[in-house]
TrEMBL record:
Pfam families: Glyco_trans_2_3. The keyword Cell cycle does not apply. The chain crosses the membrane at residues 12-32, 318-340, 347-368, 380-402, 451-470. One of its GO terms (molecular function) is glycosyltransferase activity. This is Cellulose synthase/poly-beta-1,6-N-acetylglucosamine synthase-like glycosyltransferase. Keywords: Cell wall biogenesis/degradation, Glycosyltransferase, Golgi apparatus, Membrane, Transferase, Transmembrane, Transmembrane helix. GO terms for biological process: cell wall organization. It comes from Thiocapsa rosea. It is a multi-pass membrane protein.
Length: 483
């Protein structure tokens, strides 16, 4: 028997309880979405002469030809041209992307459009730094932000600015993401399911409950005064959008959400790209957890129940780190080197049940698409692939808690096309495959019945590892064919 068995059992029990609470948080948001009445933003239409000046910021980094498409969508917006400023904030390091931005901006300037290109050689504070640098060159009252892979509808500004004009305490309005390439493959379908759950369940529930609705980094309009009052864009986390939106809430500003205003965007088509994106988001949330939690609990502007809900919101991604720790701590019990007490056994059962029920209900509530079978495929695909990020996202959470800084890594949304000689070394999934096979073999040798409890972890690791391996082989063939 292990000398440290009581301590290990205690830590494992506490970890499982935290995971159960995380699942209960999802269930709470799900039920809030079901039972609370819907809300609409108060808006007042304004005459043409009363419309304010709007700055549109387009932060880019090695986006290739996406700049042409997003500028085409921006130029189609229904807004007076004399009150519309456009900034292409292109920090690209490859000449291919930068030259495309320069050409596109020069063409529009010749047509009389108020547009400028800002290119920083040193990417201080990454996206946050680019946005802040752009604000220094404009005094527009409102600021709309679009990432390069989104295409706002023509009425976007009309629908978002009206509520901001009608409600002076509204800091920003966030629209919902839609997905141009949703049906490309199972990965894009599962990503769409996850994002639909975020916007149509989580964000909508927070909006109905009166909780702050975090800005999602794109497809939203900010009141310039709110940005300045909250302390401006800061680059000390990888989720500068979440950071600023919560700092604005602590200053007394409110947020608005428009579920019925979808903005089409592009989803990553490879597991490697999606894994990179999720790592950044997970680490950014954990960084905000460390940075903002003391301010949130010290704030007199928030009622206690909102402080609890925001704490769960910021801490939710740390479930990957806690889950990885629980898997490791559970190995002695699987091997029989430690014996689980009655309390641990009960907590494990409850946590497992909640761990299945909460995300399944949460993901399903995003809507039935193309029949029950297709919806079930998306839901369980999302469950397994998200669980397959256990190691990567656990590392993200641990780095954030330890204060380890890492650069902002752009998420590629398609094939590697940002230049004719660009080569990217894609991870081959060896870490996930080794962990998944090792865990499966260990469980089968020691206690085969435990595979039932570990099926999501094992299946997710093997799935993500295999898909990364296939991505790597496809890229190797592409590189070989081009050499």
């Amino acid at each position: 028997m292990l000398a440290a068995e009581p301590f290990v059992e205690l830590i494992l029990t506490l970890g499982l309880i935290l995971l159960a609470l995380s699942s209960l948080n999802l269930l709470g948001l799900m039920f809030a979405r079901l039972i609370t009445p819907s809300r609409r933003l108060v808006a007042t239409s304004h005459a043409h002469a009363q419309l304010p000046s709007v700055l549109i910021q387009l932060p880019l980094f090695n986006e290739g030809e996406l700049v042409d498409r997003v500028l085409e969508a921006v130029m189609a917006l229904d807004w007076p041209r004399d009150r519309l400023q456009i900034q292409v904030l292109d920090d690209s390091t490859d000449d291919f992307s930068l030259s495309l931005s320069q050409r596109a901006v020069a063409k529009l300037r010749r047509e009389g459009v108020q547009i400028e290109l800002l290119h920083r050689i040193k990417r201080t504070a990454f996206k946050a730094g680019a946005l802040a640098a752009g604000l220094e060159r404009s005094d527009a009252e409102f600021v709309a932000i679009f990432d390069a892979d989104f295409m706002p509808p023509t009425d976007f500004l009309r629908k978002t600015i009206d509520p901001l004009l009608a409600q002076p305490d509204l800091a920003y309005v966030q629209a919902r993401w839609a997905h141009i390439n949703r049906d490309d493959n199972l990965l894009t379908r599962t990503q769409a399911r996850l994002l639909d759950s975020h916007f149509q369940v989580e964000q909508e529930a927070r909006w109905r409950l009166g909780l702050p609705v975090p800005f999602n980094g794109t497809c939203g309009v900010w009141r310039r005064r709110a940005i300045d009052d909250a302390g401006g864009w800061q680059g000390d986390t990888l989720t500068e959008d979440l950071d600023l939106s919560l700092r604005a809430r602590l200053r007394g500003w409110r947020s608005g959400f428009m579920k019925d205003l979808p903005v089409p965007g592009v989803l990553p088509v490879s597991v490697r790209a999606w894994r990179t994106q999720q790592f950044r988001w997970t680490k950014g949330f954990a960084q905000c957890f460390v940075k903002l939690l003391p301010m949130i609990w010290a704030s007199p502007a928030l009622p206690r129940w909102q402080k609890v809900m925001i704490s769960f919101q910021l801490g939710q991604p740390l479930a990957f780190l806690i889950g990885a720790a629980c898997v490791v701590l559970g190995l002695p019990f699987i091997a029989g080197a430690a014996v689980a007490g009655e309390t641990l056994g009960r907590v494990a059962i409850v946590t497992s049940l909640l761990g299945f029920a909460a995300p399944i209900g949460f993901l399903t509530l995003a809507g039935i698409r193309s029949g029950a079978r297709a919806t079930a495929t998306e839901v369980f695909g999302a469950l397994f692939l998200t669980t397959g990020l256990l190691l990567s996202n656990a590392r993200a959470g641990l780095e954030a808690l330890l204060g380890y800084r890492s650069p902002f890594v752009r998420t590629p949304k398609g094939a590697v096309t940002a230049g004719p000689r660009r080569i990217v070394r894609w991870p081959n999934g060896l870490v996930e495959l080794s962990a998944g096979l090792g865990l499966l073999g260990f469980a089968l040798m020691e206690q085969p019945v435990t595979v039932i409890y570990l099926v999501m972890v094992i299946g997710g690791l093997l799935g993500v590892g295999t898909l990364q391996f296939l991505d790597g082989r496809a890229l190797s063939k592409q590189t070989g064919a081009g050499s």
